Amino acid sequence: MAVAPTPMPPEWPALYGRDCLRLADFDAADVLGLVRLGRELKQLHQLRVPFEPLRGATLAMIFEKPSTRTRVSFAVGMQQLGGQALELSPSMLQLSRGETLEDTARVLSRYVNAIMVRTGPQANLEALAAAAAVPVINGLSDAFHPCQTLADLLTLYERFGYLRGLAVAYIGDGGNMAASWLEAAALLGMGLRVATPPGYEPDPDLVAWAKQQAELSGAGIHLTHDPHEAVAGADVVYTDVWVSMGQEAEAAARRQAFAPYQVNRLLMQIAGPNAIFMHCLPAHRGEEVTDEVLDGPQSCVWDQAENRLHAQKALLLSLLAPRHRS
Ligand code: CP
Ligand code: NVA
3-state class of 302 per DSSP? Predict the structure, then answer.
């Protein structure tokens, strides 16, 4: 009787015990390894092959800001890998009564195998990671959103079959999403054109780092204030909300400054029919993107959202499980 072949357990990058506070914590080979592992885990999941190497492991999740995708995809991802996730809101913790982040990290490290944090200042993550004895994962900070960019890279890898040389136009705010995209493009040798209103450019130190890195990787990093220039010839048009979490007081000024940067049919026409549209979500329909583009045939935003699950499973596995092939 024929026996169905058992799928080989996947290989994963040697990142055991490391933190993921930003994408540039890793080198290009590690990032590509995570993307490929994400695709393998997605295939195993679609074939309904149980794969539970994190049995007995616990992820603590601290959310200082709201979240739908990050919260659910990390919780489900841990469960699918055989582990569990524990959600901790800061108001439930002694953090709300003055216990320091560092002491919280030391204590949590005695109970859990990793800590995922969504916070404002990047310095909070760095302090937590310095005190924690277990890996710390950035689930979004004011500065970076590495888990989203990993999922975006997986989505592009599925669509195009490669990443190096893809031309990405990033339209809108030079905030956390643009920053993680600068790191990804610079590491992986991609073309990135970032079009922001004057005054909303990405951090100049990060841009300088990205341009330096680009000389090694072959990436092309270009900043402009002209969205038409950015999207001409692009494979990918990417945008994010105009008002990020924590920027509510600036909402009126931002809506005015960003109005010419809306991704609409006209802008997608300049990019061309083969360009795809990406958005980290949540979208503010009618602001940074029209319904027509978000719901249109060039949009791949739901794949991006799904791929949070698979990309983060790859990350969790690589940080939490020692590498082996059995
Ligand atoms: N894209 C993203 O991080 O979504 P959430 O804010 O819903 O987690
Ligand atoms: N830039 C957005 C991303 C949300 C996923 C924010 O920080 O609110």
Answer: helix
pTM higher than 0.70: yes
Would you give per-residue pLDDT tens digits along the chain (326 residues)?
Answer: 555 555 566 788 999 999 999 999 999 999 999 999 999 999 999 999 999 999 999 999 999 999 999 999 999 999 999 999 999 988 999 999 999 999 999 999 999 999 999 999 999 999 999 999 999 999 999 999 999 999 999 999 999 999 999 999 999 999 999 999 999 999 999 999 999 999 999 999 999 999 999 999 999 999 999 999 999 999 999 999 999 999 999 999 999 999 999 999 999 999 999 999 999 999 999 999 999 999 999 999 999 999 999 999 999 999 999 875 44
| CATH class name, domain 23-144+308-320 | alpha beta
Q: Are strands 191-195 and 167-171 parallel, antiparallel or unpaired?
A: parallel
Are 135 and 20 in contact, with CB atoms under 8 Å apart? Answer: yes
Q: Looking at this protein, which amino acid is placed at residue 54?
A: L
Distance 61 CA to ligand 1 centre (A): 14
Starting from the CA of residue 239, give the closest ligand: 2
State in Å: Cα 149 to ligand 2 middle.
12
The ligand 1 atom nearest the CA atom of 70: 8
Q: Where are the domains of the chain?
A: 23-144+308-320, 146-304
Instruction: Examine domains 23-144+308-320 and 146-304 and report if their fold is the same.
Output: yes
CATH homologous superfamily for 146-304?
Aspartate/ornithine carbamoyltransferase (3.40.50.1370)
- Residue 153's alpha-carbon distances to 88, 120, 182, 311, in angstroms, are 29, 24, 12, 9
Residue 245 Cα to ligand 2 midpoint, Å, equals 6
What is the strand order of the sheet 136-138 is part of? Answer: 84-88, 58-63, 114-118, 136-138
